[in-house]
Amino acid sequence: xxxxxxxxxxxxxxxxxxxxxxxxxxxxxxxxxxxxxxxxxxxxxxxxxxxxxxxxxxxxxxxxxxxxxxxxxxxxxxxxxxxxxxxxxxxxxxxxxxxxxxxxxxxxxxxxxxxxxxxxxxxxxxxxxxxxxxxxxxxxxxxxxxxxxxxxxxxxxxxx
Length: 160
What we know:
Blueprint: H1 7-26, H2 50-58, E1 61-67, E2 74-81, E3 84-92, E4 103-107, E5 112-120, E6 125-133, E7 137-144, E8 147-153
């Protein structure tokens, strides 16, 4: 017998995804942080796909990086967390509109204090900061003509 109504399949799958997301966000992980090992780097390009939603669900450190410089079209940015290189990319100022080209990276860290270092050789800038992972955090790192700007929030950050 063939089921014509796909809701019999769709509803259980949505429930499983919701429960998995809830468990991932409530876990009290004591192990060392996992950088990109279990959560591959994802870039949002205007629409979220299934993998991006999953990574967003299980991560506790959502990092947005952008080149906001008006003098350097492409800037090299390296990000180190606790001394480990986690991002090594070139960031272009042009995207959907000049200066509106954020890339998104998803991480899951253990609770506690971590050290962040951001540097650009082409931009001649270095930034260091300690941050404390308590629950979930959204972070923006912008490269500007004056160096790096860092912002961390316990609530989602939205861009216009």
